[in-house]
């Protein structure tokens, strides 16, 4: 088989293929598992995520009172809320799944599952793009991300996700990112000073005696005094 006629794939094309692949794989996976099973499973994850998202600002101050380290306290708050909520939703979803598993609507269940899987894959891709945008602003992103054909769709999906999130999440994230940037700048300056300290006497040396304009003025003053 001759592959010489195939077009060369650049980084932008690979990025687009990865996004499309995530959506299609999610759709096929849901097609074989069925809509009911996938919906109930997704409900557990989404429900746990929402509980952790909206409960995080409320529970965080109480956990920080118990744990000295703010970082560990914040991680424990988010992970704890998610796990507890996920176990509760999984129990409820399991009870519902056992009640509807003998419905006999296999074809419809698979078709709806495929559509559901496509939507889920798009959601995963948008969440990944949103995380990338938080870490790297648009001006700092590589060209193959800024010029990707799938970027407009990802931006629209990320915008919808941002509107659904509470403002406290963005305020906290922005503060932590700004603090991390300040710490990184301070550490970089300290590192440079340790590697290459300014040698003593490296600054401009003071001039000995009078400067040239001062000497000229002094000569004119002496001449004027002599003439008198």
From TrEMBL:
- Which InterPro entries would you find in this protein's record? Colicin-V_CvpA, CvpA-like
Quick check: keyword Transcription in the entry? no
Biological-process GO terms, alphabetical: toxin biosynthetic process
Q: Please give the chief subcellular localization of this protein.
A: membrane
Q: Membrane-spanning residues where?
A: 14-36, 42-59, 71-92, 112-136
Q: Residue ranges of region Disordered?
A: 189-228
**Source organism of this protein record:** Thalassospira xiamenensis M-5 = DSM 17429
What this protein is called in its record is Colicin V production protein
Subcellular location(s) per record: Membrane
Q: Which UniProt keywords apply?
A: Membrane, Transmembrane, Transmembrane helix
Topological relation to the membrane, as annotated: Multi-pass membrane protein
Question: Which spans does this entry mark as compositional bias, Basic and acidic residues?
Answer: 213-222
Q: Name one GO cellular component term.
A: membrane
